[in-house]
Amino acid sequence: MGKEVVHRLNGAIGFLDFPRDVTAQTRETAYNAYNTLARAKVTAIGLNFEASDYLNSAGIGLFSMVGLAERIILVTDEAEMLEQCGQ
Length: 87
Hints:
By secondary structure, the chain is of the alpha/beta class. The protein is built from 3 helices and 5 strands; from the N terminus they run E-E-E-H-E-E-H-H. The protein has one domain (6-80): Transcription Regulator spoIIAA (2-Layer Sandwich), CATH 3.30.750. The strands form 2 sheets. The protein has a 3-stranded mixed beta sheet with strand order 1-2-4, with helices on both faces. A hairpin with a 2-residue loop joins strand 1 (6-10) and strand 2 (13-17). The protein is globular.
């Protein structure tokens, strides 16, 4: 996966798979992947940090900057997210 955020679709649900290290360099690929999902008109987006083990302050700033902290529902895994989204 490298240092890029990868996007994927599961029906109307989009996922952003984050790399092992989430830093300021992750920002551009996260925005690009998100924009791809937005153009696909997904109904929900899952942020998958399963492969991530490092999130520095610049990486955290990526989420607080766009107001995601107020809109996130935490789930234990992808199956739970799909269940909550009625999939």
